[in-house]
Queue: 2 jobs
Job 1
Amino acid sequence: MRLLLTVGRYFKQRFGCKVRKIPISLNGFTCPNIDGTVAKGGCIYCKNESFSPSLALNKKDFNNFKINSKMSENPLLELQLKDLKEQFTHHTRFYKDEFNIGKYMVYFQSFTNTYAPISTLKALYDTALSYKNVVGLSIGTRVDCVDDKVLDLLEGYVKQGSEIWLEYGIQSIYEDSLKLTNRGHGMEGVEELFAKTSARGIKVCAHLIYGLPNESPDMMLTSLKTILSYKVHSIKIHPLYVVKGTMLANMYKAGNYTPITLESYADLIVESMKLVPEDVMVQRLSAGVHDESLIAPKWCFDKNVQMKYIRSRLRSEGIDY
Ligand code: SF4
């Protein structure tokens, strides 16, 4: 049986103990694809609230004010630092003894977490790294929101011994797909950006989506092969699903989008995992929304059911995830 390098296995090798990623979704952050800087309306499937219930916690204090990287000052910083502390405390309260978790990575998850004044990023990252047992950061972002200032800041943490990951949303390597899904960026310069990130000692995780409109299985596998050829340290793959209040929901209702089936998705995952080198960490192979905002496909309602099927399909091919 071939063992894929899962998050658990990677952290055990790296730190000798269990490490839990603590998801943080800070109010006040947005995305240049939402605020009109590169596009309006965001990706056609984007509904960050449905991915991150934590955003609702302190939402009213923020009055819908959003920050961006061009601001010289951030009037929300104190509120965001409070939000960070509350969410970290909330998520770690169960892990003390029960699960024998030794250390934490703080995962800045929702929206574009490098799209803020550099002083804000420094304050948030410094604070997260100062929490007890935090060994590093994982930061979700876009390829058009990481410049040398951000890399300099993150490299500084690497030099101090922290484990730093940048999680880049790629989704597809096809320009037509990126346009159709309103990503607001193309693939130009992505390989160079990944190389620059890695050269600073920062780990690269690339996200892909399977089941984008008009993409064939061959195209999805080609996206993966291309991303792997860019020497990423990790991948996350998830199926595209339709949630209420998105452009994709309109396409689906108009009969212009057919979601991928669980069987086809699992077939693709099996083929994909055969391509992943031993030292590339596979951080995620599923996704779901366990509430009434999910429109389709219904198999995305329960991640556990999804993963049980995918794991059994992988195992029948001699791959353990
Ligand atoms: S890049 Fe991410 S946060 Fe921005 S619109 Fe797309 S899915 Fe939403």
Note: Residues 31, 33-34, 42-43, 46, 48, 111-112, 142, 169 surround iron/sulfur cluster (CB under 6 Å).
Job 2
Amino acid sequence: MNRKSIMPIKVLILDDEIDFTNEISDYLQNSGFVPFAANTTQDGYAILSKNEIDLLILDVRLPGANGLDILKNVKSLYPNVEVIMVSAHGDMDTVIQSVRFGAFDYLRKPLRYIDIQIAIERTQKYLHMQQKLAQIEEKYSLITNEIESKIGRHCIGKSAKIIEIYELAKKAAEYEDISVLITGESGTGKEIFAKIIHYMSKKKNNYFGAVNCSAIPDSLIESEFFGHKKGSFTGAISDKKGLFEICDDGTLFLDEIADMPFNLQSKILRAIEEKEITRIGDTKPIHPRFRLIAATNCDLHKMVDEKKFRLDLLHRLNTLHIHIPPLRERPEDIAPLLIDFTEEFSQKINKPIEYIADEVFELLEKYSFPGNIRELRNLTERAIILSESKSLEVKDFPLSSIGSPKRKKDYTGVNLKTNEVELIRKTLEDCDFNQTMVSEVLGISRYALIRKMQKYNIDIIKKDARHSS
Ligand SMILES: Nc1ncnc2c1ncn2[C@@H]1O[C@H](COP(=O)(O)OP(=O)(O)OP(=O)(O)O)[C@@H](O)[C@H]1O
Ligand SMILES: [Mg+2]
């Protein structure tokens, strides 16, 4: 997929009659094409060299030049340009020759609008087909259609970093029993890669169970993981399988592993090491065979130093470590992601977008994306809703109101947790402590934001202090 693929078709009319080129240009302009007019061969070549023309409407007879020679030349210099020949005399020989030299169609003068329209629509259909083919070939989706359909969306990227990560994920898929730790800031795609590993592995037809460790209340966590026997505690009204058992022969994805209560970490470690668990209230051990993938945006080594995470569990999880860098460190991925999200949302909300202004790519490539890919996705959806035309312009991406682009150096040299705290503080300031806006920028729910603020002791105050200073 490339940027050009979603732009309107550019048509060059090369004819010595100025009235004719003007008239056709107006007609094309009103029909949603981008017209260019040239009345001499020289001007025609100049336009072809500076603009990515899709379609050339070429008069067979130009003063001092033979249309067929121009056709041959254009096809060899610009093989992607389609040509419609215009002949004044309906001269069959010329028509046959021009088709032989690669003309897509021909028209006879005097031209009728309806003929031009039919010819251009036919060419347009052909060009769209070509563009679709090019999109399929060039699509920066890293995964196959089969996995794409399983994980619910495609995984886009063309940077060396994301390709390297994809290769690591493939390796992880090959060794179906090793544990994998995926780290990266919020919204970088940790869950997508966990699913890719599962669906590329031999376990793909078995269960992929995702559990967010911060979402289960401490009182229930043990029974959620290990299951229980009926009557083993108040509320255990029937036998219940735990997550390890449910994911037998499949993959258990432990998201936000840093939030796993310390006292449970040793039990989880034992379950992973021995692949043996016992339901609460039961005596009979069971032996589920699951692969564990854990993810976090915290620095687990630091948490080990702070005695909040067990070193032995970290070593166990870390058999293979995949770190997904933030989007700002791989700006090459922004354009393909933006194009992909634009196509997705314009289809979803039935609002065709045919063009994305170059300035939008430039703006986004400079932006720091604190909320990473999730933020880009949200920004794109909002831009499409805001857009009043068939194109996306800089004004549709009001980055300044949600925090101005930040310099890279603001984020380097800090570990993941400090980074997160920093990020939340900075974004709070940028958004004037409006939590709804902050959660939108960071791409997390307001509830998750509040939870993180509580976890890191980040004050909600400041507003008055700022105003009084
Ligand atoms: N390479 C990618 N191509 C396309 N979409 C992506 C890619 N990476 C992430 N996304 C999209 O970005 C969003 C966030 O991805 P995901 O949930 O996997 O991130 P995460 O790292 O698990 O975030 P969190 O830490 O907040 O849980 C999702 O909508 C996902 O589909
Ligand atoms: Mg996640």
Note: The pocket of magnesium ion (ligand 2) is lined by residues 190-191, 255 (CB under 6 Å).
